[in-house]
Design a protein that fits this description.
The protein is mainly alpha-helical. The protein folds into two domains: 1-40, no CATH class; 54-424, no CATH class. It has helices at 2-15, 20-35, 42-49, 58-71, 74-86, 92-108, 111-128, 133-143, 154-163, 167-196, 206-231, 237-255, 261-294, 297-307, 312-329, 332-350, 354-368, 376-385, 389-412, 415-424.
């Protein structure tokens, strides 16, 4: 009864367009007040407790670091390097955009930030090379989704904090999944290019490539610092976030010399806004998660699912459906912090590897960022390109189909995720 009450109130709040953090909070307060003798004042402690976690410190640091990279010229240097790397291929500008999203995602961990950083530069380039509007905006929106899979991923940090899964393990597992996602989209890009006719190829000079590659070395060191430090046991993911952000500031100030005081202030303001949005959702979802635990909802769900005798494949399909639907109507951060603690115990009982489950959830959230009606990538692409949302939604559809194929591979071929994890953590996994 209580579970149904919470679900109905939550659904009503979301349907009425009440902000998500309030939609998560209202059922919590009402359930405690109506069905328990616990004072609702305890919810204040639960809101704070949801944020009082060491692992969460990495998230604002990575978000701030992403803004520094965007304002300080690091994104541009990576883009120049990518152009030289793949512009000679058929559909060179399209592949430059796709690979640039992969590289920038490995620096910032934010899908919307990748749309803004890469889309703002590459959309005019794509149009100049006669790629049509639909393909261009669909390419940018879908390719940027990989930022959530390639570490450092803000979504993986939230999942790790919500479930207790190793953030370092999730980061390493995300590499395989991110590569698989990118390869599937690359196949579609190549198919589209061949069907429409070869687009402009650019010739490159080795002298020019050497200069661009040299300029990109400081930027490319950032993911090396993050993953190398975590993998080598030098520092935790949170410490890696602090070190990489400090290094980004150093590179932007003293090597590229593009970070002014005004740009630094802009980076602080933008990252502060994003952090506030994510953290208030996290605190509200953590409080609701505690209320659900009080009423033993996760335990009952796990026992109920196991009693059906469903197979692991059915469970993975269930997870995909739940998170794909949630991604269509909820912010990804809210979906992870609310739903991950519910499916996590079921997954463990079903024998699903916790890192595989976390990467699978993250992949669904990444696809949710390019799925209407609330996909953030679509709204950012709208601002970057000026195209109407209806046109962007239509344009992203074929890329969405390719993304779902990648999701199926990641879901049912767990070694895509776990191969590198077992190499990195042979004793733990």
């Amino acid at each position: 009864m209580v579970t149904a009450f919470i679900g109905v109130v939550l659904a009503i709040c979301l349907f009425l367009g009440i902000p998500i953090f309030m939609s998560l909070s209202i059922p919590s307060f009402l359930a405690l007040d109506l069905f328990t003798s616990i004072s609702v004042e305890v919810m204040v402690q639960r809101f704070f407790g949801g944020l009082d976690k060491f692992g969460l410190m990495a998230m604002p640091l990575f978000i701030f670091g992403a803004e520094i990279m965007l304002q300080g010229g690091i994104a541009r240097k990576l883009l120049d390097f990518t152009k030289y790397l793949v512009s000679w291929l058929p559909g060179g500008t399209a592949f430059t955009t796709h690979i640039a999203c992969l590289f920038f995602g490995a620096l910032c961990g934010s899908s919307p930030a990748t749309v803004a950083a890469i889309g703002g530069v590459m959309y005019p380039e794509l149009r100049k090379d006669n790629y049509d509007e639909d393909f261009s905006v669909g390419l940018i929106s879908s390719s940027s989704a990989v930022a959530l899979l390639i570490p450092p991923s803000v979504t993986m940090i939230l999942y790790g904090v919500a479930t207790g899964t190793s953030v370092g393990g999730l980061f390493v597992g995300g590499i395989g999944a991110g590569i698989a996602y990118s390869l599937v989209l690359s196949v579609y890009i190549l198919f589209w290019v061949m069907k429409k006719g070869d687009k402009t190829r650019q010739t490159i000079s080795f002298k020019g490539f050497g200069r661009v590659a040299l300029n990109a070395i400081p930027a490319m060191l950032i993911p090396v610092i993050i993953l190398g430090g975590i993998y080598g046991g030098i520092f935790t993911p949170t410490e890696a976030a602090a070190v990489s952000t400090a290094f980004s500031i150093f590179v932007s100030l003293f090597i590229y010399k593009e970070l002014t005081f005004k740009k630094l202030w802009t980076a602080c303001v933008n990252s502060g806004i994003v952090c506030a949005q994510v953290l208030i959702l996290t605190s509200a979802a953590a409080a609701l998660g505690w209320v659900l635990t009080v009423f033993k909802v996760p335990q009952n769900l796990a026992q109920g699912f196991l009693s059906t005798g469903a197979s692991q494949i059915v469970f993975l399909l269930f997870v995909n459906i739940i998170f794909l639907i949630a991604g269509m109507f909820m912010d990804g951060s809210g979906a992870v912090t609310l739903l991950a603690p519910l499916v996590y115990p079921i997954g463990l009982a079903m024998g699903v590897h916790p890192v595989h489950l976390g990467v699978l959830v993250t992949t669904n959230i990444a696809i949710g960022n390019m799925t209407p009606p609330v996909g953030l990538n679509l709204f950012v692409a709208n601002g970057v390109t000026g195209l109407p949302l209806t046109k962007i939604i239509k344009a992203v559809t074929p890329f969405l189909i390719a993304a779902l194929i990648a999701l199926a591979l990641i879901s049912f071929v767990p070694e895509i995720t776990l191969f590198l994890v077992r190499m990195a953590y042979p004793a733990s996994f």
